[in-house]
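Shall we go through a protein fold together, starting from nothing but its sequence? Please make up or recall a protein chain and show it to me in full. Go ahead whenever you are ready, and we will take it from there.
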Amino acid sequence: MAVKHPLNIVKMKKMKQEGNALSMVTAYDYPTAQLAEEAGVDMILVGDSLGNVVLGYDSTLPVTIEDMVYHTRSVVRGAGNTFVVADMPFMTYHGSIDETLRNVRKLMQEGHAHAVKMEGGREICSAVETITGAGVPVLGHIGLTPQSVNQIGGYRIQGKDEKDAQRLLEDAKALEQAGAFGIVLELVTEQVAEYITSQLSIPTIGIGAGRGVDGQVLVFHDIFQYASPYRNKKFVKNFGDAGTLIREGFVQYVKEVKERSFPDESHVFTAEDQVVENLYGRGREKVNNA
């Protein structure tokens, strides 16, 4: 297998210009990152969606910077030749700029991320400008922003009317001006996402944003229905059913343990008779004669 070289933000911009779609997967651990890299995924996002998907929370809000550092470091170990972006979790970039930079430093130095992702539009642009000015690539995120779900009134499709579409366009342009190298568009109507994409020189990556964007991102657990129960989503295509496979495997494992059919002869290790004799002596005879 040829050695894979990670993308950088210059190559990503060139891919947009040439019409080459970017593939991105959200992953949270070492083995998943390994498999994604082996498959040729362009970028991996360590999303704060780990709160819902991995940690069992009802939202992304409880996720801490320490959670993100831990999972990002695991992903980078598994995908050392892939561009890895780490989410800045809730309220880690809305205080003082010193606090924001400390959190960015954690993700970069301790988590070994290549870039950070931040939710929001014009209201975060001053922070984006400062962070990119410090040499850290920033991926923007507009549309449905889960960290603001309580403020925006739930998980609603964005860009359904002219006013909302104009807001998204202005946010996207402001993020580009502030130095973001790309923007995630989440749950945005296809027409609006396509128009925003045409107005930017930086790539857009869609999740539930239709076909006119520069790339796509999906969560690993959605791609492979790795959940119980799994809830279907309109914007997701399932490429496998790991959940059913794993559940059936567990059921069979429990059954064979209860029946004592596992382990069988092929799974055990045996010692030479002399070893047993030296260890247990006459006690072995009593056991065998019992």
